[in-house]
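In keeping with the milestone schedule agreed at the kick-off meeting, the structural modelling team has produced records for the first pair of proteins. Each record is given below as a sequence line and a structure-token line. The laboratory manager (R.T.) confirmed that both were archived under the project's standard naming scheme.
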Amino acid sequence: MDNTHPAAPAAAPAAAPFAAPTPAGVSMPLGMFVYTLLYGGMTVLAGVLAFKQVQLWPTSLAVESGIFPFLLLVVISSTLSQLYGREAAKRIVWWGFLPLGLSALLMQLVLALPPSSEMIAFRPDDLAAFERVHQSTWRVWMAGPASYITSLLLNIWIFDRLRGSGPKEGARGSTLGLMVRGAIASALSQAVDSVIFITLAFYGEFDITDLLIGQVLAKVFLSLVLVPFLITFGVRAAHWLDAKKAG
């Protein structure tokens, strides 16, 4: 008589932290899903807002308004790197070209389509302003991808390298260490971003000295003062979203 017992079925592999399977069998943390949506929107908004330069009162220095959504891109990419790894953050950055490229193509399509007779008759000033602004932003749309991919990949690389070769702190690491790494990586990458973007987008159209200096100073200042707190909030918000999905 065979007293052997059938082998117990192999245990199912443990689910990845903060991941919950979807009905289709694809596992994606809710935090990553939400931040991916926000990331795509910010890539488009940064290109649109970049056309307006805002004065840094009380000085004569200026900053292009795309700095605000772009800093959120930095925060999101650093948050993703912290929680889900550098490779996941890099994939989001590369995929960010998709909404950026589609928005540029759609803008050209809209500009090429004839306006309605009602707009020509009753809102000619609005039509002229729309076409003047968006037809003159081609250099902004060209400069954006160059500065975007360079600075954000640099930000992720610096942020990850500053973590060192020790154990990854992941979800429960030192808040102070997270803030310091976020500030340094953002300040350095955004200084590089400013030089690339302002030079490619506006050089030759006007004296870019004040804008370039203002842009660098503003991004470095905000990186040191604001970004660390935004990254801390972003990580905690992702924890909450992931726990909500898992629950």
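The second protein of the pair:
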Amino acid sequence: MSTLEIQRPTPHTAEVWLNRPEVRNAFNDGVIAELTQAFRELGADPNLRCITLAGRGKAFCAGADLNWMKAMAGYDWEGNRADAQALADMLYTIYSCPIPVVGRIHGDCYAGGVGLAAVCDVLVAAQGVQFCLSEARLGLLPATIGPYVVKALGEQASRRYFITAERFSSDEAHRLGFVHECVPAEALDARVQTMVEALVNNGPAAVKACKRLVQDLSGRPLTDELRADTARRIADIRVSDEGKAGIRSFLEKSPAPWLS
């Protein structure tokens, strides 16, 4: 792939690096297409347990590429809609990827880059990172990334940063719950690796089921149907091969089979 670097450090882990450091990893239609393809393919790998999403160079992602924006300025309504739909589909592909995604955030994270961060399951950011939902400065709005940012950042904080286009720091993002861990830049890789190891050490089917559970429960009312659904889910996993093996290993004080 020309805009991404994909590495497989172990059979159970993958790293997807945005690899356009000369433009601070700003994305265009090529990046969108390659991210969509990469996460579809990685999500279908039965051996994979964790994906790290990161950026080469000085920034995680500075939003949209200027040349791409110039091209979009000449599109008609249907061209703009199709272009935005591709971005929306890419974000959903990462968000719905069955494999958990750890975001490694350094440098600037602006506009669509905030959307990429928001679709990750775990976010680790370096101190000094600047986030910005800058669309309103250009007379635009963060529409396609909006559903994911509002979920991750919260409605009240999103209300502010969508309309003011202010920058906010990784420390503030951590305080608001958008970022899970905020660490010194020199500790970023070690902390990301700790998260990766935690994910890999858990039951792989259970992790996928947990990720799906959170997405399915979010915003749903506590109905009889929901309670029945959760009871079915725990029953399904208890009788699965992985569930049985995990319980047996716990009771026998032996390593779980997925650790071998």
